Amino acid sequence: MPQTSMEIEKATIILKLLGDKTRLTMMKLIDDEACCVCELVEIFQTSQPSISQHLRKLKDLGLVKEDRRGQWIFYSVDKCNKYYPFIKPILDQIPSQEYKLKELEEKGTRISCC
Amino acid sequence: MPQTSMEIEKATIILKLLGDKTRLTMMKLIDDEACCVCELVEIFQTSQPSISQHLRKLKDLGLVKEDRRGQWIFYSVDKCNKYYPFIKPILDQIPSQEYKLKELEEKGTRISCC
DNA sequence: TGTTTATATAAGTATATAGTTATATACTTA
DNA sequence: TAAGTATATAACTATATACTTATATAAACA
C-alpha cells in the first residue's frame, strides 16, 4: 500500500525532472546544503543559463526553494514541499555528492564566490 | 545514508525511463501482475509497436522480465533485478493501477486475449 | 505446410528537451 | 548614480524521444 499516494501524472513529471544527470546530482547536492548559482555553474562545468534553466524547472514544481543573500541566490531542496516524501527515498539511494563542494573549497572557488 | 548506493548515471537512466506516463503506469501495473503485450496495448490505447518499444527499453535495463506462455508473452517487473530496491519505493508511492485490469475483465477483453 | 495471431524491429516523422548566445534584470558598491 | 557582478529570460539550435507505418519473426493450429 502506498505511503503517500500521489497522482501518477505528477509522479511522472517529477521523475522526468530527476531523470537528468545534472538535475539529479544538483538535487542530491542541495538536499544537504544550499548552493548559489555560480557554485553550481562551476561544479557542473556548464553555462550559467543552463544551470538557471534547470533550477527554474525544479522551482516551478516547488522541489527547490531560493534564498537571496546579498547579490547571491542560494538554492536548496524544499523539504516542506508536499512532494518531498516522494523524492526523499530516491535521493537517499544515490551517493553523496558532497565531494564536489569539497573540490570547490580546495580550489578556493567556494569562498571567493560565496 | 544510502540504503543501496547506486551509480548516479544508472539512477538517472532509470528515472528517465520511469519519467514517462505510459512506462510508469505500466511498471506499477506489472509490479503486481504479469500482463501480455496485447493487454497493455488495449489498456494504454496505443499501437502495439509503441508498447513493444517501451517494454524493450525496460527490459534492456533488466527492470522487467518476459515469460512466454504459448503465443503470448507476459511481462512483469523483475523483482530479482539489482535495481528493484531503487524503484520499489517509487512504485509504492503511486496509486494502484489494478482498476485498469478490472476494466479489461469487465469488457471481457482480458479473457479473450489471455 | 500454409494461415492466423502475437510480438519485435526498422525507418521515418513530429515533438520535447538541453544547451548555446544574446540580452535583461537585480543587487552591490565605488 | 554609474559600473560591476549575479542571476534570469528569450530565442535559437541540435539532439533525444515517442509515436507511426511497414515489415519481419515466431508460435499455434487447421
From TrEMBL, chains A, B:
Keywords annotated in UniProt: DNA-binding, Transcription, Transcription regulation
Record-linked PROSITE patterns: HTH_ARSR_2
SUPFAM superfamilies in the cross-refs: Winged helix' DNA-binding domain
Pfam families documented for this protein: HTH_5
Domain HTH arsR-type intervals: 3-102
UniProt feature coiled coil, ranges: none
Protein name as catalogued: ArsR family transcriptional regulator
Origin organism lineage: Bacteria, Bacillati, Bacillota, Bacilli, Bacillales
